[in-house]
Amino acid sequence: MFQTFKNLDHAFRQLRRITVLSITAGVLTAGMALTASYRYTLALQNRVYVLSDGKVLEAFATDRGENLPAEARDHIRTFHELLFGLDPDEKLIAANAARALYLADRSGKQVYDNLRESGYLYGIVSGNISQRVVIDSIEFDLRSRPFHFRFYGRELITRTSTVTTRSLVTEGWLRPVSRSENNPHGMLIENFAILDNRDLGVQNRSYEK
Q1: Cα separations (Å) of 42 from 56, 61, 68, 102?
Q2: From the centroid of its chain, how far is CA 29?
């Protein structure tokens, strides 16, 4: 009889040990599953799918501060190319200007209005002139908000017989705003001003037969 109780006690201990091991294994498995699921969810949150020309492209989201210098530089470059890159097509000029003005405040519109009211844009169209912006450098200070920047570049103005090189030095401030389809970097140029826009030289164009 005592042997029977001893066997029962031993069996109970084994059962308890197996139960504890099973519960521990279950808790560990559940914990690993939750951890893996959490990491996968974070990875999905940082993954962005972009539709371009009917194709789905995968991109990864990053913290804004990590990519701020590159985004600021591209915002400034895009604004200048849209506003000062001109071709003899009044509809194209107006369309590019409309896109540029989403990236700046009233000071950007004032520059465009001055070009239009002075007859400069009419001269571009009527004279079949093309104007291209060449970027030399962009300086900005990200230590305080809004961020001050200074743009150094040139305008290459192509006429039928000549190419005029003109300096283009501007400055302004960048203020962070909400991102949108028209303003993907989420920045707004404020107090934009042209500091230097003088002719640097004229080169004759040659047509070789």
Answers
A1: 21, 11, 22, 32
A2: 42
Three-class SS of 105-153: CHHHHHHHHHHHHCCHHHHHHHCCCEEEEEEEEEEEECCCCCEEEEEEE
What pLDDT digit, counting tens, does each position of 114-169 carry? 999 999 999 999 999 999 999 999 998 888 889 999 999 999 999 999 999 999 99
Domain boundaries, the chain: 2-47, 64-204
Residue 170 near residue 80 (C-beta atoms within 8 A): yes
Nearest Cα to Cα of residue 99 among 81, 121, 124: 81
| pLDDT-based confidence at residue 67 (cuts at 50, 70, 90) | confident
Q: Which of 137, 126, 120, 138 is nearest to 174 (CA)?
A: 138
Q: Are strands 55-60 and 130-141 parallel, antiparallel or unpaired?
A: unpaired
| Paired tokens of 25 | 């294994």
- Say which CATH topology domain 64-204 has: Nuclear Transport Factor 2; Chain: A, (3.10.450)
d(CA 76, CA 68): 12
Are the CB atoms for 128 and 86 separated by under 8 Å? no
Q: Name the pTM for this structure.
A: 0.70
Which residues is 152 bridged to in the sheet? 137, 169
CA distance 74 to 190: 16
Residue 12 has pLDDT above 80, yes or no: no
- Eight-class DSSP state of 63: -
